[in-house]
Amino acid sequence: MEPQNVEEDAATMEPKAKKAKTKESNSGRLTAHTGARPSRLKNDGSQWVDAYMEYAKGERVVTENDDEQEVGESQSWESVDWDAVRESVAKEMLEQEALKATDPSVRDEFVQKSSKSWNTFYAHNKQNFFKDRAYLWREFPELNPELTPAPPGEIKPADKTRVLEVGCGVGNSIWPLVDLHPDKYFIGFDCSANAVRLLQTHAKYNEETTCKAFVTDIAETEIPVEQLADKSINIVTMIFMLSAIPPEKHQAVLQRLRRVLKSGAVILFRDYGLYDLTQMRFFSKKTSKLSENLYKRGDGTLTFFFSKEYTEELFKSAGFEVLDIKYDTRMIKNRKRKIKMYRVWLQARFRLKSDDAGATEASSASSSTAQ
Questions:
Q1: 54-58: long-range contacts at Cβ-Cβ below 8 A with a sequence spacing of 24 or more?
Q2: Pairing of strands 184-190, 75-79
Q3: Is 22 exposed, middle or buried (0-12, 13-18, 19+ CB in 10 A)?
Q4: Residue among 33, 43, 30 nearest 334 (CA)
């Protein structure tokens, strides 16, 4: 089974981390894939091999999950600049891929089952499958306790800043932030009842003082009023969540979020970027594409890859202004095997416009994307 968000685990590692030991739980996950078809690439160690370019040629550079593991003793991790040559190759690949028609009935089948696939996923994989995202406070100033320190003294729950995690899973984003922000109250929801049940068994879960979680599928339904009141949320985190939803439903998701956001609320966004290594791996498989930049995984879940242009227009049309948006490009090197793997994530911050400025624009977008 191929999980949706395991691709971004490498982001939890600090830049240039060295000799970080692979966790036992992660090792178990990797060894579960030992039956995968081995690499056709024969590397004698005399030169570095670019996994990205090998995928472009349809080669299986590594075993199924090699680009998903943590940085280990034979790997290094560093930021890199995205280069025009690699982008040109990726663009040509995807243009070739676009010539292959996808059966609409196949696409519809996977889209309809995607939420159920997540519930099945969490029935088989428990709390420790994904790493906690302990890096988020470094990426977003709103989550950095050094930039937004908590006021002295005890804070009543009703007075705390309210942070909403959309697609909370089992709390891998929430729990590291709970420790850093005693002045914030965290709320999460997910389409998977199994995931929410697992989150609610965590030792830190306390609806009176710390956080609460509930089940809702925002891709299909409104957020229940009894769970979240109008204009009650200050900060929203959308971390590797929107990619699991087909693009025709993205605008509806943002419109449903608007109801619960205070004027000036901020959305913190991080997800798969266009031409990420994962997209190139899907290309090499030849059977995963459902539509433009949308792919299916072996477990039935979906992955969409975001461009800056698409994402910026999506949020602007929903009544948000762009605070910042960028591609986060990284390279993982397996020094022992001399393999280079390139990752691309899209990271952004958006702010909800004032009620007067955004009402007309958002109403127009909502009516045109009604589900």
A1: 55/277, 55/280, 55/281, 55/283, 55/284, 56/89, 56/90, 56/93, 56/280, 56/283, 58/284, 58/286
A2: unpaired
A3: middle
A4: 43
Cβ neighbours for 88, distance < 8 A, ≥ 6 positions apart: none
pLDDT digits (tens, 9 = 90+) for 69-125: 434 445 566 777 767 666 777 777 777 766 565 777 777 877 877 777 777 777 766
pLDDT computed for residue 189 by the predictor: 97
For 158, phi then psi, to 5°, come to -65, -20
Residue 232 has a pLDDT of: 96
Q: Which two tokens stand for residue 100?
A: 């292959």
pLDDT in tens, 13-56: 443 333 333 333 333 322 222 233 333 444 455 566 677 666 66
If you write DSSP's letter for every residue of 233-250 in order, what string do you get?
A: EEEEEEES-GGGS-GGGH
d(CA 210, CA 179): 10
**Contact predicate 353/319, CB 8 Å:** yes
Q: Which of 134, 133, 241, 127 is closest to 195 using CA atoms?
A: 127
